[in-house]
Amino acid sequence: MYSVVLSDAEKTFIWDGVEVNLRNDGRKRNDYRPMELETDVVTHASGSARLRLANTDILVGVKAEIDVPSSETPTIGKIEFFIDCSANATPTFEGRGGEDLASEISSALQKAYDILPLNDLCIVPNLSCWKLYVDILILECGGNLYDAVSLAVKSALFNTQIPKVKAKYIDGVNVDLQLSDDLFECWKLDVSKAPCLVTLCKIGEFFVVDPTVEEEACSNGSIVVSVTHKGSITSIFKIGEGSFHRNAICEAIKFAGVIGCELNETLKLSLEKEESLGSQRERYGFLK
Amino acid sequence: MAENICISLAVQRVSSSVPPRGQLCKLFSPGEIIFPQSDFMRGHGTYPEDDVLKASVAGVMEQIGRLISIKPLKSRYNGEVGDVVVGRILEVTQKRWKVDTNSRLDSILLLSSVNLPGGELRRRSAEDEQMMRKYLIEGDLISAEVQSIYADGSLSLHTRSFTYGKLSQGILIKVCPALIKRSKTHFHNLPCGASIILGKNGFVWISPTTADSNSSGGFAQNLDQKVGKADREVIARLRNCVLALATNKIPLYSTSILHAFEESEKYLVSELLNPESMLDIAILTQHKIQMTEDL
């Protein structure tokens, strides 16, 4: 896990700052740092997005492929998350260093996305469906990875274009699909119901959103809550070794519900705004 | 809409570069021929190939007599004797502390080059060695001066003055070392109510101004003292101003920081995190510096 070492005095400074609701960078406890989003940055992927939150830099690519649905859920498609922690982000990710964190985040996403209806991804019940491979690349760590990753994933899924199936020939268990020849004849997945993760970092007696790396070093536990656009909670889990009082958890969930709604709403507005610019807009990517 | 969450789009991105003033230096890129002749001495950042001198790093040329060197624009900290630095203790070992000063190798602070609490100079005994962790442990921040440079390029630091020593409550900011302008003093008590240490290694320390800064040789750390909200706001604003200047590549020294602080008054502290307001402050600061220089 990436982290920084702080002196006791620096920690005290951060603790006291959270207590008076004025954090080191002037934010209040419920403020996020400004984010920057761009979708459709990877040309070869079905959908992609890049999100930068202060120093946290996430690139997500989505690839749609045809697969066989699992026997328990024959009428829905599949989605799979894969995280790559680049050693560019921090030297501790070198070799197998980032694997623990990667599996932690991917299982968190898998759980949170359980509720997303994937019926649209079914092509032929029992025989054929779309499988979305969501590849997440962590390029830089500046704290609050979970929120940033979930926002980037949601944006990339929003941007994903899945080809239309023109004809299906079913012969027993063999399915022959004919996809549209026109590259632009695609449909988009409805991700309005997809959740966002909200990390609440407990520092002293208070919860803060969007912790920086320094703030994460001061806390001994965070609660990550996945919240949908309507404020319903789809999963909760804890990171770090600390423990929480049950009242604190109730309070955290309520708080996360409110924040999560706003987060989903803000993201939706940004995505719609970018979409309204049309497909001919200039791509910025990592330059400039 | 809630104003505490803001997701901007890449198309709205502002380029973080203030238009330069004065004449521009020629920039060399790696592999570029510096001089077609070979009768020059080869300095840092250069290499000879086919009888010509070429740049091995991206940067500007420095010529001292016949010695040609290329100074990289962005690099780790290259220490020079007498520089004020801010560093973080990484390791406590036999008779020395290892310190992270953003240089290529860990710097070393010898037990014999600190002022021990209690004052006067004396031989360091075995007890002192056992007590090392009492003075400085892993994670602690110190301000120090570069005493000498070892043959391998690592730095030896000293804190043998009351101005140096362990740092107490405050905020550390890391910027590019090239942005810190060398000046007479790197310790400033700014009139806005905070102290700032501009480490030549690119580590900037902002802390509340305390009345008695020379209590016990710089090893005191007052953890019970709570910094008030007003002081905090000043510190947070300074932090954001320093970052705004650093991202827009404006040299950091007391005047530029104070100008930036004055210009930032029209924004809320948290608004200073937006790239637009950061650029605005950088441009206004540069303008102000130019005005005062022209006078």
From TrEMBL, chain A:
It comes from the Eukaryota. One of its GO terms (cellular component) is cytoplasmic exosome (RNase complex). GO terms for molecular function: mRNA 3'-UTR AU-rich region binding. The keyword tRNA processing does not apply. Its main location: cytoplasm. Signal peptide: none annotated. The keyword Cytoplasm applies. Belongs to the RNase PH family. It comes from Parthenolecanium corni. It is found in: Cytoplasm; Nucleus, Nucleolus. This is Ribosomal RNA-processing protein 42. Residues 32-163, 194-256 form the Exoribonuclease phosphorolytic domain. GO terms for biological process: exonucleolytic trimming to generate mature 3'-end of 5.8S rRNA from tricistronic rRNA transcript (SSU-rRNA, 5.8S rRNA, LSU-rRNA); nuclear mRNA surveillance; nuclear polyadenylation-dependent rRNA catabolic process; rRNA catabolic process; TRAMP-dependent tRNA surveillance pathway; U1 snRNA 3'-end processing; U4 snRNA 3'-end processing; U5 snRNA 3'-end processing. Keywords: Cytoplasm, Exosome. InterPro entries: ExoRNase_PH_dom1 (IPR001247), ExoRNase_PH_dom2 (IPR015847), ExoRNase_PH_dom2_sf (IPR036345), Exosome_comp_Rrp42_subfam (IPR050590), PNPase/RNase_PH_dom_sf (IPR027408), Ribosomal_Su5_D2-typ_SF (IPR020568).
UniProtKB/TrEMBL annotation, chain B:
Transmembrane segments: none annotated. Residues 29-62 form the Exosome complex component N-terminal domain. One of its GO terms (biological process) is TRAMP-dependent tRNA surveillance pathway. It comes from the Eukaryota. Its main location: nucleus. Residues 170-211 form the K Homology domain. CDD domains: KH-I_Rrp4_eukar (cd22525), S1_Rrp4 (cd05789). GO terms for molecular function: RNA binding. Residues 76-148 form the RRP4 S1 domain. Keywords: Exosome, Nucleus, RNA-binding, rRNA processing. InterPro entries: Exosome_cplx_N_dom, Exosome_RNA_bind1/RRP40/RRP4, KH_dom_type_1, KH_dom_type_1_sf, NA-bd_OB-fold, S1_RRP4. It is found in: Nucleus. One of its GO terms (cellular component) is cytoplasmic exosome (RNase complex). Belongs to the RRP4 family. PANTHER family: EXOSOME COMPLEX COMPONENT RRP4, PNAS-3 RELATED. This is Ribosomal RNA-processing protein 4. It comes from Parthenolecanium corni.
